[in-house]
Automatic annotation (TrEMBL):
Gene3D superfamilies: NAD(P)-binding Rossmann-like Domain, UDP-galactose 4-epimerase, domain 1. Residues 7-181 form the NAD(P)-binding domain. This is NmrA family transcriptional regulator. Pfam families: NAD_binding_10 (PF13460). It comes from the Bacteria. InterPro entries: NAD(P)-bd_dom, NAD(P)-bd_dom_sf, NmrA-type_oxidoreductase.
């Protein structure tokens, strides 16, 4: 069975490839990337795969049995890009598509959830065998905020007391590999999140404990937080989006206690303490 992974040079894709290599014959793995030369170091077959070049996609998927479609990184362009991949998968005879969606995509108020909902609908309409991995928040998403927090003595956000059940990319990658290499997953939707949830105040407290530096959490209104992010160098649309993610978290969008992720990977998800240690 040939397994292909889109976005193979991305942060999640690289981990998936490495974990696949430890579980199946590396000759059965195909790394799909916009710049295949960057994927050469992965030690598997590489093929050019640019979402914006539909004519390139069908040839790249020839002979592929199972495809991991890692959601594209360009927010606002995902729906047509994903549709192009779905159409190519059908044309190439791919048997099973595994898609990385977002936690509770059908009901989530996260601004990026709409594109995932549309992609899920397109997959449902395609007639392909599909598995949905509705990934929750990556703990690493907060990594970029740590240097500034340590420098200025405050971890800022607008998530209030919202509880965040995040997990690491390693956890989510392991779940993807379990589904890609196992049986009984076709037609299933998995809501994936960490075993334990925390508030950003608790995140800041753990950061303080590990660094020996007092870094309190400072909560602020969404618009004010967006201005802080803009001042830190984020483009305005990205700053607004990230501030909005926090507000959604305040309302429960990043929380789940179903335990499906740890059940899939057969171990507890990475504790916050260990994740922060890794980030540091």
């Amino acid at each position: 069975m040939t397994i292909a992974v889109t976005g193979a040079t991305g942060q999640l894709g690289r981990i998936v490839i490495e974990k696949l290599k430890a579980k199946v014959d590396p000759t059965s793995i195909v790394a799909l990337a916009r710049s295949p030369e960057k994927a050469a170091e992965l030690g598997v077959e590489t093929r050019a795969f640019d979402y914006d070049q539909p004519d390139q996609l069908v040839p790249a998927l020839q002979g592929v049995d199972t495809l991991l479609l890692i959601s594209a990184s360009e927010i606002g362009k995902r729906v047509p890009q994903h549709q192009a991949v779905i159409d190519a998968a059908k044309a190439a005879g791919v048997g099973h598509v595994v898609y990385t969606s977002v936690l509770h995509a059908d009901a989530s108020e996260l601004s990026l959830a709409g594109e995932h909902r549309e992609t899920e609908a397109a997959l449902a309409a395609s007639g392909l065998d599909v598995t949905l991995l509705r990934n929750g928040w990556y703990t690493e998403n907060y990594g970029a905020s740590i240097p500034s927090a340590l420098e200025h003595g405050a971890f800022v956000g607008s998530a209030g007391d919202g509880r965040i059940a995040s997990a690491t990319r390693d956890d989510y990658a392991e779940a993807a590999v379990t589904v890609l290499t196992g049986d009984g997953h076709k037609g299933k939707t998995y809501e994936l999140a960490g075993d334990s949830a925390y508030t950003l105040a608790e995140f800041a407290a753990e950061l303080s404990a590990q660094t020996g530096k007092e870094v309190p959490y400072v909560d602020m209104p969404e618009e004010e937080y967006a201005k802080v992010l803009t001042g830190a160098g984020f483009p305005e649309p990205m700053a607004a989006a990230f501030a909005g993610f926090d507000t959604a978290a305040k309302n429960g969008a990043l929380y789940d206690n179903g335990g499906q992720l740890s059940s899939l990977i057969g171990r507890p998800t990475t504790p916050l303490k260990d994740a922060i240690a890794g980030l540091l």
